[in-house]
């Protein structure tokens, strides 16, 4: 009984293969004097960047800042704000969110210079993705930063990008909850 079933299955598969070969032979070939119509090019534009959706702040209390970035203990909190990353409402899907936390803190010029030396900070571009509510707190002028400084401020929960203003003693920290 099992052999009979196997023979029927083989016959069905053979018929399907023959039928698809016949159908494939019916497709018209591209004329020899023209190229086939090319496929539209793939989009080369990058997806829009994630939008910072504010859920807290701007505020000046130090607890939330120090919990995330303990190196800032004993500093003057100029302001912080926090929220989730996301695009427009059509991008929302159920599931975990990515949280962000931005802070502008005055640590003083001596402490900023000490960190710059200790963590081999180099000149970097000014922070361009700081939350809108904090932009007026970001000092004009040059900044230093680098991977070692970022690692010093990061933790298993928060990945930090740090910008030091050596002339004002302000630190801009952009954190992402990993």
Topology of this structure?
Blueprint: H1 2-25, E1 51-59, H2 63-68, E2 76-86, E3 99-106, H3 109-118, E4 122-124, E5 143-145, H4 147-153, E6 158-164, E7 170-177
Antiparallel strand pairs: 1-2, 2-3, 3-7, 4-5, 6-7
Q: Would you kindly provide a written description of the structure presented here, covering whatever features stand out?
A:
The protein is α+β, with helices and mostly antiparallel strands and about 180 residues long. It has one domain. It is built from four helices and seven strands; from the N terminus they run αβαββαββαββ. It has a five-stranded antiparallel sheet. Strand 6 and strand 7 form a beta hairpin. The radius of gyration is 29 Å and the shape is globular.
Short description:
With 178 residues, the protein is α+β, with helices and mostly antiparallel strands.
Percent strand equals 25-35%
Proportion in helices: 25-40%
Tell me the number of structural domains: 1
Mean pLDDT comes to 78
Low-pLDDT regions: 8-13, 19-48
Spatially, the strands of the biggest sheet line up as 1-2-3-7-6
Which key phrases capture this entry?
single chain; about 180 residues; alpha+beta; 4 helices; globular
